[in-house]
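Run: sequence + 2-(butylsulfanyl)adenosine -> complex structure.
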Amino acid sequence: MNREEARRRIEELTVRLHDHNYRYYVMAQPVISDYEFDMLMKELEELERTYPDLALPDSPARRVGGDITREFIQAEHRYPMLSLANTYSEEELRDFDRRVRTLIGDEVEYVCELKYDGVSISITYERGIMVRAVTRGDGTRGDDVTTNVKTIRSIPLRLRADYPMLFEIRGEIFMRRESFRRLNEERVDMGELPFANPRNATAGTIKMQDSAEVAKRPLDCYLYHLIGEDLPFGNHYDNMMQSRSWGFRITEYIARCRNIGEVFGFIREWEQGREELPFDIDGVVVKVNSYAHQQELGFTAKSPRWSIAYKYKAQQALTRLLSVSYQVGRTGAITPVANLEPVLLAGTMVKRASLHNADIMAALDVRLNDRVFVEKGGEIIPKIVGVDRSSRPSGSQPIEYITLCPECRTPLERKEGEAIHYCPNREGCPPQIKGRIEHFISRNAMNIESLGEGKVEILYDKGLVRDAADLYDLCFTDLLGLEKVITGEDGKERKVSFREKTVQNILKGIESSKEVPFDRVLFALGIRFVGQSVARTLALHYRSIDRLMHAGFEEMVLVEDIGPRIAESITGFFTDEGNRRIISRLRDKGIRMEMSQIPEKTSELLTGKTIVATGRLKGFNREGIEDEIRRHGGKPAASVSKKTSFVISGEDPGTSKIAKAGELGIPVITEEQFLELLKT
Ligand code: IVH
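>> structure
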């Protein structure tokens, strides 16, 4: 192919891929298979590699950006990004309506939308191409985060037809609750601190320097505001609807209302319905529909007079702070937890709330016996949001943050610029030791289920285990007859005793863990920042622990997906004499320290496909089906997402996986159909 032909083909592929992206992500109605799509994408990528200067600025092959933008460049907003007046009071909303009608008359029409709880963004399109995406910043200028926003699939890079030559569209970037939950699970697995709520996770993600990392985090976006000189209609609603045909995903949660009564109807509907939504909202935004009316109403210095946000009250309760305890995690991170006088909040009894860290405690200036406001937001554990100072007992003192580890009395450390305190006594601090063993036996690691439910605690207390390798020295007589009363998560006491059957199960579980493949063993070791997928990458790359142990930092950062932070953590882990000893003992006990045979590639049939298997299959166990998928060039995955090509369902499939597939329109096939597919 000569240069001119390449140019034409690149253009053609760019147009076609944008079209397919739109059909897939916006319309949810793909017209070609994932495989065909991937083939077109591959062709474009290859052409762009050969002729980098011919790549178009909005190339769909560049969504997963890789460029590190050390810091964001600031960009001025062409139109200031104002905020909205907001209120929690129905009366104030009625006042707003009265003011509007006084000026406009009773025929005014409102548009009601959900108030998404994320990070607002303003995106400029010139001649149908996304040219800039800027955060709100101070309203006049914000951070240019274009490379990051380009990774969000529901935002088009290039528009379809009949769009205005130049306009801005604004909206909210957010993370769905399910994606948020999964992201936090991964972070905890890797020894990182979880985000407090989806909004923080979104804000943290959109400001990341490496857009390839952003691309891995599932962000979403709803667009809700158009600004430009030549918009087709004279009102908000029609323009929003029209913008769908340009390629935008516009919310279906929108309504035109003829009077304030209908506005309240919308508000009530979603006050009930918000729990069922897959993302967080914090209220409803009411807008005057007609641009002429908007103009007549004008702006205050800070916000438009034609719009108001009605915010739902977060569910709050007032109760007393009895004490503060400090929990020590597997990595030594300290979390302060408030113990509260039990109080009913959103249908559940709340006894504890997170206080996050020393800075937040100091900012709240919370004191013992204070009456505190507890709130339930998107997060799982409720949090303390304020103190009722008027009822504070006299003579109370600020709580001094602990300086010694509550478990082992070692002086705590806090790194420059970090909010979290750590106990550095890795080797001698009981919750850290127990936490590492709990992680080792957990389901996605060595999966020794028979040791769950507080049993590790007993083994630790009796002095039988101090590290993961000790588990493999346990014998029948060590275990038989052990017992202890433990307090569960729910605060209830339970007696755990090791009878014959229990002991047999434990020993069987430990023995079977010797079959666990190397990548999961690597994850089980609990190296900071090495979650399941990093462990898998490393295991596939290095194939054995020896090779991994001998790889230096410089070499490791060249492996795809391994950044300096991970590489440093891994090399540090292996330099530690204690860790090396545990690994050597585990190896002596027969734990897998290398990958089994590389599955030989038999075909390319599944190249580019991500496949999830669920339930019991007749012809494969878990590793077996994963190897089979790899043998044919595919990528096995554990959970269903937008990226999943199809799901193979066996007996007793995971109901949430099947439901998710249904929701996303992903095909679910039987094992037989899968085998049939491989024959073609
Ligand atoms: S319209 C000038 N619509 O709430 C009007 N804003 O408190 C521009 N927000 O800055 C905003 N959902 O970040 C609008 N459906 C929606 C919204 C929404 C969330 C955010 C937005 C805005 C903030 C104001």
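>> summary
The chain has six domains: 3-64, 75-311, 316-422, 430-515, 518-588, 610-679. The pocket of 2-(butylsulfanyl)adenosine is lined by residues 82-84, 86, 113, 115-116, 120, 172, 224-225, 285, 304, 307, 309 (CB under 6 Å).
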